[in-house]
Every structure is written in structure tokens, then in C-alpha cells.
Amino acid sequence: MTCPDPVLTLLRRRPDLVRLAAGSFGFDTGRAEHVEEVRLASGAPLMAVAGDDTGGTYFTCADGAVLYASSEGGAGLIGSSTQEALEILIGLPGWRDCTDLDLTADDEALHEAFTRTEGEIRSSYAPDLDADRSTLLSGLGLRRLPRRELLQRLQECLLRTEPEFLLVNADEGCAYDLLDRLRRPPLWRAVLAPGRADLALMRTGRSRWDEIADDPVRRPAVLRAAQYERQPQDLPLLRSLLEHEAASCGASEELRIAAVLIGLHGAPEDHTLLRSVRQSDPDMHFLLSGFPESPGALTRWAADFDESNYGQDPHDVYDLTWTELARRQGQTELARAALIRILDDTGPRDAALLASLSHQFAALGDLGQAIRARRLHVSLQDDSGERGTALAHLASLQRRAGDVEAAWQSLRRAVTALDGPPPPEPTEQLALFCDRPQQPCPSISWRQLGQGTQIAEQHFLIAQAAAPLGLHEVARAALHEGRALLDGCPHPSAALRAAARAAEAAHERVAPG
């Protein structure tokens, strides 16, 4: 972003070319300001360089690619460089009407579409379009390419918009729509690709088995690939994957996939293998529920499990499964873009989904989107206990994101929600079937349970974070209320006491007076 773009530099030095670019082709370097603050979801740098008379803006990205954002909330990559973008804009004026044209159409159909669009431009605001195009291309040293080739380049760029160039509103984090309706491959295809490659390697011979099966990232992807590309000769490698998964991860979803795929073969020795895995741990016992006592029933058990939970169509798998695998594979932007699209599409019935999205964003390191999802999750909680728990999660995310004051407000709301309304006053009404007054039912406060320990720790962490920021009132109040919660914990852990000491030390170092 620090290196000047040679084409833009040349254009800005030529006022005559600036006028042509703005007037006939909608690339006005004097309009380099968007209607709202935006950013790339990835956090990569973005710089506005031009605009058009509809309120749209052209941005250059870190690698020199050009992104266009409309004033109506659409965005897309339109060139891998400023040179390519301008060749497309000048060679295909009215390019926004061409984004969905069918490249398989014959030359006559495409020529008719291009001619119609250019005719409207000539009659509307650029009567000298052809001369302006020649002057601008020549003056900037750009090529005049066939319009079919320009359309192909444009569509190839548009298809690259996600995941790396997903544009979001800077304040809310909501994604811009795509500029086109071109077909894109499903998420699962990119996530399964490494697993399919490794599965093919394992099928070539045992020399690569341990290398792949030992890898906590590659192993689950291979098992997912094996689920959809089943071959009879895979049984030995499935056993190896199962044993490595059991030793490394325990009761995981991928282990159950391996067990089901092995069980479908129905070998008696595999009944013994799977039974030993199931008996090795209570979680394994639960994971492989309904496991048959008889080897003869193994195939039926596996087939029933396969039909109800797995199958052979990756389209049937929940998208959050693929985003989690993408994150584990290091395909961060692929996971992020998919999660943002899912979050943007949530509604009032999606409380559980919002909680899962918040967890996945946090695991991805995107605390801003995690906070956004958790706020929406909080807003859907009618039960005071669930709302309090959700607010405590929100406070933790806000603290980690550096917004300590917001975290403190959320934590205070969490405590209020968890406490609930005050208990009713005891009455002298006689209980049924006896002559004694009714007694209130005894209950255990959340403060005496594990949640009390967690909330107390949140107080100390906020106090520790607030002190060096000069938020002395926040630090003092959080420390005071944290101590009260600590005193009410029946069995405070060593970690909780250590958190209290750290908060007290941080407060004492910077407290005024």
C-alpha cells in the first residue's frame, strides 16, 4: 500500500485523462471517499482511490487488487491490479450490467449485450465514447482487449472476492452483498480438498500412514473425505486413523465417523476393536451409544448410525462443521467469511446458533464478530439465568478485546440477571393438609456453584485490566465485588485466589493516593 501505483500516478498527472476517466467511464479520482466507513473482514489494508457518480467507490488492496463497493451495499473484486481494473472499466463501460452475462453464449449474443449497454451510455452522457476510450487507453499505456476476454477477466476477479476480499461495515461488521450472481463452489469442497489429497496418498501405501494419521489437522480431514469417498480397500487405513484419533483426541465426532465406517464392513475382529475403544472411557461409551453385543449386529448398528447422522452427501453437513475444520486447517479467511455470512442471516429463532457462532469467532481470533454474535444472543434470552450467563460470556469477550468499561457494564448486568427478582415475602398461609405455615423452598444460589467462581474470576480479571488503563473506579468496584463473591465461594480454587491477588497488586500499583 505504500508503493505508488504507476497507472494511478500517471492518471493523476494528466487532468485531461482525469476528466475522461470520470466523465465517460465513472472512475473519478476526486470522489475517493465512500458513503460509510468500511474495512476488509480480514483486517488487511484498504485505500479508496476513486468513485463514481452513483456513490460507489474503488479501493486498492494490499496486493494491488481493486475492489468496488456500491452505495447500495454491494462489493466485488474487479481487477487484480489497477491496470487490469481500468482496462475492464474502459473496455466494458457499464460493466456492472455485464457481471452475470453467460460466457458460454455465442459471440453474436454477447456482442448484442455489449452494444446495447454502450448505446445507452452514448445516448445518456458519453456521445464520444469510442474516441474517449482510445484516448484514455493510449494515454495510460493500457491495452485494448476483446470484450469477451475482458468479461472473462471481470468474472474471474468477482469470483475471487470471497474469502480474502470480503468487505464489511466498519461499525457493525455486517458484510456487503456480492455484486454478481455467479455460481461458486460450496464451502465443503475447499475444506475437503486437503483431506481428499491425503486420502489419496494413504491409498498409495502404508509409508505415509503414520505421518498423516499422527497429524491432528490432517487426520480429521481424511476421515471426512473417507466418509464421502468410500472404498472397500480403505478398512486397514480406517483402523489406523481410528486408533490415532482415540489416542490423541478421545471421544470426537471424527472418531465416531471412523467407527461407523469400520462397522459398515462388519468384520468380527472390528467388533472387538470398537468394543475395546468404547469401554476405554465413559465419554467413548456415550459416543458409541447402542453398540451391539453381538458381532453379527455390527453392520446394522453402523448402517443405522450412518443413515441418521452421516451419509455420503457433504451438502447435508451443517456449515459450522466445515467452518470449524477450515479454522483447524488454517483456512482462516474461508472460515471467517462463511461465519460472517451465516451471522448476517440469523434471526429471532437462532439463539443456539448465535452462541455457536460467537464461540467459533472467538476461536478464530475475531473478537469483534464474536462480540456481535454474543450481543444478539443476549438479546434473545428470556430466561434471566440464561441471559446472565450470556452476558458473562459477552463481558469476557469485551475485556479480551480491550473494551474494559463495556465489559464491566456487561458483567454487572450479568450479576443482576443471575440474581433474578427478590424472593417473595414469607406468608402465614397454612399449607395444605397441615396446620403449619408454608416455608419457602430452599435453593442454592449461583454464587455458591461453579458459576460463582467463574463470575468472581471475571471481576478480578476486569479489575486487573482496568487498573493500568486509569479506570480506577472500575478497578475498585470490580475488586470489591469480586472479593465479596470470593468470600461466598464454599471452595475457592487456588487459581481464583491467585486472580484475586493479581488484581489487588495491579490496583495497588496505580491507585491514586
TrEMBL record:
InterPro entries: TPR-like_helical_dom_sf. This is Tetratricopeptide repeat protein.
